[in-house]
Amino acid sequence: TLTSVERDTTIFDLINKEQHRQESGIELIASENFTSPQVMEAAGSVLTNKYAEGLPGKRYYGGCEVVDEIEQIAIDRLKSLFGATWANVQPHSGAQANTAVFLACLNPGDKIMGFNLAHGGHLSHGSPVNISGKYFQPVFYGVEAETGLIDWDKVEKQALQEKPKLLICGASAYSRDWDYARLRNIADQVGALLLADISHPAGLIAKGLLNDPFDHCHIVTTTTHKTLRGPRGGVIMMRNDFENPFGITTAKGKVRMMSSLLDSGVFPGTQGGPLEHIIAAKAIAFGEALTDGYANYATQVAKNAQAMATAFIDKGYKIISGGTDNHLMLIDLRTKNGVDYGLTGRLAENTLIKADITINKNMVPFDDKSPMVTSGIRVGTAAITTRGMVESDMARIVDLIDMVLMNHDQEAKIASAKTEINTWMKQFPLYV
Ligand code: PLP
User: Fold this and answer.
1) Which residues bind (6S)-5,6,7,8-tetrahydrofolate (predicted)?
2) 272 annotated as ligand-binding
3) Are 418 and 353 in contact (CB under 8 A)?
4) Residue 268: is the preceding peptide bond cis (ω within 30°)?
5) Deepest of 39, 287, 294, 372, by most Cβ within 10 A of its Cβ?
6) In whole angstroms, what is the distance from residue 238 CA to residue 290 CA?
7) Atom of ligand 1 nearest to the CA of 96
8) Rounded to two decimals, what is the model's pTM?
């Protein structure tokens, strides 16, 4: 029987080791978070056994009555979280969600215009190493060297020249808000569809802390595991469904709605069976995000990011664009108070991890170093806020980061920072 299968201690020992790593350090990777125990319980449930190609009520497999209910709850909760009228909760990841949108909206070779990866954009918005850049023709807009901000006038000028079929907004490392109304105006001038990928700030948008993309963007995608604090995955949403502008009709000659093309873009377009265990976990996370407790959390994430940015600036670090509106910031390590300390993103990442501070190296706009070295680091407050940290803790984190970076060749000092951090983090229990 299944219960007599020998336990795989090799893997479970490693899982325990990873749990210890997560609990004992300071997690500042902007795209990470800690899910609730009930989210993990659903992700590890019997639902992983079920095939359910299709959509609730319209499946290609029998026995889907229960997963139909679960998936419908996930859809309904997500719609109410963002004020959307249509959602697909099946994409296995954020990149999958974007690929499904491309398949629904574009033909191979069509032009897409997205935010430059080297300025903080995402691979799935047209990078030549991603399907989005191989099958479509990408052009990119970026930030200004002096301000670190996107100049919407320049985006407009470029879009009028390039005439993309799809204009994409959203980023992995942009700390400022987006002017969705302006972007829609630009998209309308060139007949482009406008896609917002809100993977990073989704939780802050859901709680009204940032501009709302839904009234302006035709389609919105997001991951579910960053600020939203759900299981790893993606979703696609629309506030207003509309007839597809490409003249694609049904067998009966009716123009297909965009929602129908997007559903097909996910399955059978880019995926097979949905992960119903993950969809159940998404449903739980969306339920959690609908609570007042989560609204307080999202507000605290933003407050912590502000406090952290201020603490870095007070120490003389250069933050791209001079601050943050959301949960993250990009720090240019080439100088501190105008002095070159020989720091790179790679050196910072490799040194901070010795003290159990996890960050990621990141290119800064107009970086002169390679993506494997980089001049910057990206830090975010989503995960540490889940642990219960508040503004006053941010200055101490920045003190520790600064101490480790300024003493990157002093192993004893780094070891003492690690001891301090491991002791400190016991005050913020995670999975008791
Ligand atoms: N879109 C943006 C803006 C992201 O930052 C990310 C992940 O970092 C993704 C998409 C991809 O998500 P996933 O890793 O789930 O494919």
Assistant:
1) 117, 121-123
2) no
3) no
4) yes
5) 39
6) 18
7) 16
8) 0.97
**Residue 117, marked binder:** yes
Cα 28 to ligand 1 centre (Å): 17
**Is residue 13 classed as helix, strand or coil in its secondary structure?**
helix
What does the pLDDT profile of the chain (432 residues) look like in tens digits? 998 999 999 999 999 999 999 999 999 999 999 999 999 999 999 999 999 999 999 999 999 999 999 999 999 999 999 999 999 999 999 999 999 999 999 999 999 999 999 999 999 999 999 999 999 999 999 999 999 999 999 999 999 999 999 999 999 999 999 999 999 999 999 999 999 999 999 999 999 999 999 999 999 999 999 999 999 999 999 999 999 999 999 999 999 999 999 999 999 999 999 999 999 999 999 999 999 999 999 999 999 999 999 999 999 999 999 999 999 999 999 999 999 999 999 999 999 999 999 999 999 999 999 999 999 999 999 999 999 999 999 999 999 999 999 999 999 999 999 999 999 999 999 998
What DSSP character marks residue 254?
A: P
- Does the model's ipTM exceed the 0.95 cut? yes
**Cβ atoms of 217 and 185 closer than 8 Å:** no
Q: Determine whether the shortest distance from the Cβ of 97 to ligand 1 is under 6 A.
A: no
Catalytic residue among 32, 41, 53, 151: 53
Q: For ligand 1, say whether the CB of 378 is within 6 Å of any of its atoms.
A: no
Could you tell me if the CB of 224 is within 6 A of ligand 1?
A: no
Pocket test for ligand 1, best of 33, 112, 124, 271 (most atoms within 8 A of CB): 124
Mutate which of 129, 175, 199, 219 to test ligand 1's pocket (most atoms within 8 Å of Cβ)? 199
Least Cα distance to 329 among 171, 106, 114 occurs for: 171
Token pair in block for residue 357: 């501070």
Write the burial class of residue 416 (CB in 10 Å: 0-12 exposed, 13-18 middle, 19+ buried).
middle
CA distance 350 to 78: 38
382 neighbors 30 (Cβ within 8 angstroms) = yes
| Antiparallel, parallel or unpaired: β 137-141 and 111-115 | parallel
Cβ(235)–Cβ(89) under 8 Å? yes
Q: What gap in Å lies between CA 361 and CA 345, rounded to an integer?
A: 4
